[in-house]
What we know:
Elements: H1 10-14, H2 25-30, H3 33-50, H4 52-55, H5 88-124, H6 128-141, H7 144-155, H8 159-185, H9 189-196, H10 201-237, H11 248-257, H12 264-291, H13 295-298, H14 302-319, H15 323-328, E1 331-341, E2 347-358, E3 363-368, H16 374-382, E4 390-397, E5 400-401, H17 406-412, E6 417-420, H18 434-445, H19 450-463, H20 469-473, H21 482-494, E7 500-504, H22 512-529, E8 532-537, H23 540-546, E9 549-554, E10 557-563, H24 564-569, H25 574-594
Parallel strand pairs: 3-8, 3-9, 6-7, 7-8
Antiparallel strand pairs: 1-2, 1-4, 4-5, 9-10
Helix pairs in contact: 3-5, 3-12, 5-6, 5-8, 5-10, 6-8, 7-8, 8-10, 10-11, 10-12, 11-12, 18-19, 19-21, 21-22
The structure holds adenosine-5'-triphosphate.
Protein name: Dipeptide/oligopeptide/nickel ABC transporter permease/ATP-binding protein
GO biological process, one term: transmembrane transport
GO cellular component, one term: plasma membrane
Amino acid sequence: MTAHPVVAPEDAVAAPAAGRGRRGWAGRLLRNPMAVACIVFLGATILFGLSSPWLAPHAPGATQLNAVNAPPFTAGHLLGGDGSGRDILSRLMWGTQRTLFACVVILVSALLAGVPAGLVAGYRRGAADPVLNWVSDVIMTLPGIVLLIALYTLIGPNLVAAMGVFGVLVAPSYFRLVRGVVLGVRNELYVDAAKVAGLSEARIIGRHILWAVRAPVIIQSSFVLGGGIAIQAAVDFLGLGDPSKASWGGMLQEAFANIYSNGWAVVWPASLISLTGLATVLLGNALRDALQVGAARRSLPRRRQELISRAFAAKAENDLPDRSATEEALLSVRGLKVAYPREDGGVSQVVRGVDLAVRKGEIRGLVGESGSGKTQTAFSVLGILNTEALVGGSVVFDGEDLIAHPASRAHARGRRIGYIPQEPMTNLDPCFTVGAQLVHGLRAVRRTSRRAARHEVLALLARVGIKDPEHVFGLYPHQISGGMAQRVLICGAVAADPDLIIADEPTTALDVTVQAEVLDLLRELRDERDLGMVLVTHDFGVVADLCDTVSVMKDGRIVDSGDVRTIFREPGHAYTEELLSAARAVDLDEVGTDG
Ligand SMILES: Nc1ncnc2c1ncn2[C@@H]1O[C@H](COP(=O)(O)OP(=O)(O)OP(=O)(O)O)[C@@H](O)[C@H]1O
């Protein structure tokens, strides 16, 4: 065998995904040069403002005749003086402090008003949800800037009150965000598990729910701060702020009034307002990328991805041992490799050179323990792996390599290659009736009238053993049982009359009686249509019942392969023996218990 040309050394490839080199979101953020620039700029701005009592060369209101409209770099006035002879640098420093204070008020009030309301509405629901939604909608309809102007007119220049009100006005953005995320999370199985484990509601919210909302809230905060800086500058610019206090907006307003005498005075506050707003928003974007899982993986250099893919492809070609077997088979997988980029720049290989073939009319079981790579192998044939997956090797279906020709694979999927998934319920769209989904699926792959498609679907529903097809056709997924849903999905998989079916643990979620019926149905369909089938399963009982041939997977490799009788009688690998004896031990235990 020729050496690899290559790139991803085997040890780097083989290390587990969650292993060394794993960095948190802060690490990912700090690797983004734009984020670092924004952090440095915002940090410097905060220091600039906070240090004003000690480092500002002059008091904010101190006037000097020689500083009136002084240009930059005048002695004692680095950025020059304004029309009243006040030092611009000192006023900018004090103004920054005021802006920082305004930002804190806005953020605290918006978070206090929006986040708890979103948590209550999303998690508790009940009467609180519509009421809080209504309040949020009302607040969102209020014209913010008009309300602030009215408030200033009523109570005078009170920064805390004005920015507090502004915070409440933007609170609905947090409310909606948090409510949406919580609605998505509250029905997750791990939240149910936490309830069953006896965790109090407060602990579930604190531990699980708040954790889920932290990323969107942090990102939203950066946008709120950017908006807050602009609003605070705007009200001061309109002359509504306290004229005795230095502020960026107030300085800008005064500088504009004096622009023909001292144009430079406009530049400083305008630059600070726009750069701070920009840096806040850009930092928000960078935070979003860093906090979203997978962002760093997407940043894996394209060149490196190409090299790794090429390395896989070269290995696969070298591995092609038996061209004749490939030519006979309906499906021939050779040297299939699947890997995922790791955050440290390496890759984790989850399928390591799988070979398997399926002829027409053959059912090949793909067995192995959890995580051995069965589903990844099946998904490679279908072309539905996660987009970041790196795939090498070949998947030849009816003479064409589907990995080399993704367009052919997309065309074959649903037409010539059907798929039966593991979880029947979650694979049906709850918003549409069973019939609508099947008709839609059929018409997506074959030109046929709605009426003809309906007719065909009803016949197929009857064929897969559904007693009253007309009735079930009009039902929504939640109105049918798991067994019926699996029959519906089988119906969808065979509707376009495919040659090959990929079935990913099609009976795992079903009870034993229904399991046996579904296996019988698959066997009958194979016999009727001469279907080739890859059946992914954990269960040697299913293999014994249905499969002609079996491939045993361990750690991403096929360790044993052959016809079912031979493998059951004389396992070719110690691991197969182990799996078989475990399966037999379970059976014996069951018999013992039953007896
Ligand atoms: N998007 C991904 N990124 C990184 N690793 C992944 C990804 N998807 C799957 N894997 C890893 O690939 C390995 C094989 O997964 P696969 O789903 O094929 O296992 P399986 O044999 O089908 O297991 P099970 O029977 O539990 O479904 C697992 O270790 C899994 O963690």
